[in-house]
Amino acid sequence: SERQILENYTPGAVIISNLTRPRNAVDYAVALQSNPVSRKHGVPMLIGADLAELPVVFGMEKEDYFAPLPTMLAVAAADDPAATRDLAALYAEHLALMGFSFQMGPCLALAPDLPGAKGGLQCLGADPAFVGETAEVFLQAFHERELAVLFTGFPGGQWNQTDTAPPMLLTPASAMAVQDLAPFKRAVLGGARMLLVGNILTPHLDKDHGAASISPKVMKGL
Fold first, then answer.
1. Whole-number Å distance between alpha carbons of 152 and 106
2. How does DSSP assign 122-179, residue by residue?
3. Closest among 196, 186, 70 to 122, alpha carbons compared
4. Cα gap 107→134, rounded to integer Å
5. Sequence-separated (6 or more) residues with CB below 8 Å from residue 117
6. DSSP line for 21-39
7. pLDDT 10s digit of each residue in the chain, 222 long?
């Protein structure tokens, strides 16, 4: 079914969700780049992944085929610019060697302010300045490898999620510029060419549409 999609349509990019070994990524990237659409038009396909989410286990005891990497929560806790730069460079090196063209993430949404929301291991914390600085570090490291970064979680609120409800951005519209939107703006000014708009409820921005990903006010206005 994947081959049929590539042969009959012209996707500009694919995101690979999980793999067992780095060599599988190499083989897969080569196969994707040799598909008929790329050969016909001469435009290489963008191939992305979240390096933190690539390893997967199929009913077996986990083996560390991929190098164990610190979580974004650990990056926030360490608050060490040099360590963050080293980690971003390691991300870029691994993805480049496997044949990827962009990293999906980090998520630039701030830590949750919703009661009962647990956040996540890939959350960079609640400080907009720190999250924005981390975005710039990743952009620079990936630029040096001629790779891109697809930051996720736009326009914020990604971690405001409980077990029974979808994520929701609760920040008043008047405060978003200095809070939730600040890291994304810094990323764009720093060279980010693309953002992933989340399936996040945005009642203070658009009451008529359920999620940010289908809201004209978010997609076009912001």
1. 6
2. T---S-HHHHHHHHHHHHHHHHHTT-EEEEEEETS-TT--BTTB--B--S-GGGTTTT
3. 70
4. 10
5. 159, 160, 161, 162
6. -HHHHHHHHHHHHTSHHHH
7. 777 777 777 778 888 888 777 888 888 888 888 877 677 777 788 999 998 888 765 544 555 567 778 999 999 999 999 999 999 999 999 999 999 999 999 999 999 988 888 889 999 999 999 999 999 999 999 999 999 999 999 999 999 998 878 899 999 989 999 999 999 999 999 999 999 999 999 998 888 877 999 999 999 988
Specify the pairing of strand 195-197 against strand 148-154: parallel
- Are residues 126 and 111 in contact, defined by beta-carbon separation less than 8 angstroms? yes
d(CA 105, CA 195): 9
Is the alpha carbon torsion for 69, 124, 168, 218 positive or negative?
negative
Find the distance separating the first CA and the last CA of the chain, reported in whole Å.
36
Give kind and range of the element (H or E) at residue 46: strand 46-49
Assess contact for 95 and 144: CB atoms under 8 A: no
CA atoms within 13 A on the CB side of 179: 15
Two tokens at 3? Answer: 């081959």
